[in-house]
Please model this.
Amino acid sequence: MKFNSPVLGVDVGGQNIKAGWVMGKTLNDFCKVPYKTEKVVEELLNVISNFDLASGTIIGVGFPGFIRDGKVHDPPNLPTIHQLNLEELLRGKTGLQVYVFNDANACILGEALHGVAKEYRMVVGFTLGTGVGGGVVIDKEVFVGSRGFATEFGHITIDPSGPICNCGKRGCLEAYIGAYAITRHYEVLTGENITVKEIFKKAKEGEAESCKIVHEYAFYLGIGINNIVEIFDPDVVVLAGGVSKSGNQIIKSMKFNKPLEARCMEGVRIKISKLGDKAGPIGAANWALRLHQQ
Model:
């Protein structure tokens, strides 16, 4: 059955909620709204309510954390959320068909369907932002694993004696390259508390401390990419999320990165997100429509 109405795609990121009406690769009435983590559900509902919702509207929501059947299990960077059936809650509040997925999966699906990876059949991606997420798309279908918890690339352990991650484990990739880890590292080095964007800008200008952080970022991300390539042997690796806006700077640093000299990386392309902030809503909406039509 062909569905001829736009689907509302929503992406809850680490700091902003992004949403808009999606028809295939087209996104209209796009908005990007900052939110407070302790009020994430309330603010998500506010964003949804700002759209003109007809009775048959379908809504796809990308949300951080481990998600199965619309239930969110303790997202590391949203500490107020515990075992929340978000899909059921949103359906009850809106009276509409709502489908909730992992935000990183939705983002990488968007890039695989209509973005930088649309020409490839085997796609893996990293979402680089407040946290670090991941996604795998094979022949335009998202791989979610047996419980829906697959591809949490940010929580692969790269050093069991490393720093404590927000998920509670030690030495996760996210504990080294999540935005909170980067800004904390810079503050330790300089005594200044500045944003990730400012750190990358200072690195471009040649500031020693920022350059050190960017090179270390590329090193640890390179380890993560190498590990995932060893497992999935993809056609392309996509870098998405807020920090990927500095992707060319990161890739340049990777050229001097020993982990990426491994044989498994030969022929693997690393590409920066084409859809940017729109990847999540586009992916979430397309995924929701597929489920609705099953």
